Amino acid sequence: MKTVLVLAPHTDDGEFGCGGTINKLIEEGNDVYYAAFSACQQSVLKEFPSDILITEVKEATLTLGIKPENLILFDYDVRTFNYRRQEILDDLIKLRTKINPDIIFIPALTDIHQDHKTIAEEGLRAFKFKTLLSYEMPWNNITFSTSSFSILSEENINTKVKALKQYKSQAHRPYANENFIKSLATTRGVQIGAQYAETFEIVRIIL
Predict the structure, then answer these.
(1) φ/ψ bin of 31: left (φ > 0), alpha (ψ from -120 to 50), beta (otherwise)
(2) pTM strictly above 0.70
(3) What's the pLDDT score for residue 158?
(4) For 136-154, how does the pLDDT look when each residue is reduced to its tens digit (9 = 90+)?
(5) pLDDT tens, 47-67?
(6) Which residues of the chain are under the pLDDT cut of 50?
(7) What pLDDT score was predicted for residue 43?
(8) Side-chain half-sphere exposure of 100, counting CA atoms within 13 A
């Protein structure tokens, strides 16, 4: 059994980037933790409660199979992470001590969103002696190396879609729809002769 830690700058990033793989890893008996650093209360649409994403991430991660006690929520303001690097690094080091994960999923180091980039860079600093894989977010990735893949079953991808549907407050996003999610997984599957897959950029692999 492996211990896996998913670092999500904002609630829902982990599901978009590696939701199918999270579900697959849990099915295989691995222990998966999910740490989200912001519930984006400053940017939630006015028709929703400001803390709606806290409710939604709990429902979404449970749908993927993550145990409620393995969901860790921090309270950083959206788009301020680059001003609070040391605090974030301190939190990551505490997670490293507490969880001691074998595999860490992070955003791409070249992700153009300032919060995503900060979590990727501080994640690398905190977990440089561990296996690190960057997940794909095409709307934020100018370049992305599809250097490793996770083959997904139809059940894995359907569970990912179901999890993301819990985010009703984010349904207006152009990438938050079943057609896009499945077509991207199909595209990545075609690259390796599978029906569905998610792809990851290798930052470091420890064998």
Answers:
(1) beta
(2) yes
(3) 98
(4) 999 999 999 999 999 999 9
(5) 999 999 999 999 999 999 999
(6) none
(7) 83
(8) 2
Token look-up 């992070």 returns 106
Number of C-alpha atoms within 13 angstroms, CB side, residue 77?
Answer: 4
Distance CA 33, CA 48 (A): 27
Contact 2, 102 (CB under 8 A): yes
Residue among 12, 14, 41 nearest 123 (CA): 14
Q: Where on the phi/psi map is residue 65: left (φ > 0), alpha (ψ -120 to 50), or beta?
A: left
Distance between CA atoms of 50 and 39, rounded to whole angstroms?
Answer: 9
Measure the CA–CA gap between 197 and 24, rounded to whole angstroms. 11
Q: Which CATH architecture has domain 3-204?
A: 3-Layer(aba) Sandwich (3.40)
Count Cβ atoms below 10 Å from residue 129 Cβ, excluding itself: 9
Beta strand spans in the chain (E): 3-10, 31-38, 71-73, 103-107, 131-135, 148-152, 196-204
Token pair 């070249």: residue: 110
What are the φ and ψ backbone dihedral angles of 198, each rounded to 5 degrees? -115, 150
Q: How many CB atoms lie within 10 A of CB 28?
A: 9
Rounded Cα–Cα distance for residues 77 and 97 (Å): 25
Residues 151 and 156: their CA atoms lie apart, in Å, by 9
Q: Kindly state the tokens that stand for 161.
A: 């879609």
